[in-house]
């Protein structure tokens, strides 16, 4: 069963700050360790992402935040944004929510004039890598990364 027709995707509101943190922290701690960049983005999303020209989208199911994803302005000269901090509640995974969020965040990037976005991940997250490929991302090599856990980088020309 897909939740697709029951999901509403909205722009970040302060009341979802704890959900943004919680929906990311659980998967990071399940597979990895929280790093400095994680704490910066998750503890202060408005300051670290929104105020710098970025965006956070929230997927709601019956009014409850079940997914989140961010577009963070990047300092990499060939890219406009980094797709980052995508998380879906454990009990809501496998129902197309990540795909809906990915499509929405790519659309948001296009609306804001972006030509190219990138992301950083880890191949241990095989379902996430398949999702990124389904969204049109391709693997790239050689980008600098502040994350120890990053072992794959991908990009998308818009």
From TrEMBL:
Keyword Membrane part of the UniProt annotation: no
Domain (N-acetyltransferase): residue spans on this chain: 7-158
Keywords from the named record: Transferase
Keyword ATP-binding: no
Pfam families: Acetyltransf_1
InterPro entries with a match to the protein in the record: Acyl_CoA_acyltransferase, GNAT_dom, NAT_camello-type
Protein name per its UniProtKB record: GNAT family N-acetyltransferase
Organism, scientific name: Croceitalea vernalis
Species lineage: Bacteria, Pseudomonadati, Bacteroidota, Flavobacteriia, Flavobacteriales
């Amino acid at each position: 069963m897909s939740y697709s027709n029951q999901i509403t995707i909205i722009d970040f509101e302060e009341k979802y700050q704890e959900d943004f943190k919680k929906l990311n922290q659980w998967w990071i701690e399940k597979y990895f360790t929280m790093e400095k960049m994680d704490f910066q983005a998750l503890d202060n999303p408005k300051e670290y992402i929104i105020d710098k020209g970025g965006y956070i989208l929230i997927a709601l199911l019956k009014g409850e935040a079940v997914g989140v994803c961010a577009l963070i302005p990047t300092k990499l000269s060939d890219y406009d944004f980094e797709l980052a901090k995508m998380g879906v509640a454990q009990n809501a995974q496998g129902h197309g929510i990540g795909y809906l969020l990915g499509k929405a965040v790519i659309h948001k990037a296009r609306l804001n004039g972006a030509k190219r976005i990138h992301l950083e991940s880890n191949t241990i997250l095989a379902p996430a890598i398949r999702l990124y490929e389904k969204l049109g991302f391709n693997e790239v090599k050689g980008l600098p990364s502040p994350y120890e856990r990053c072992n794959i980088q991908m990009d998308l020309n818009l």
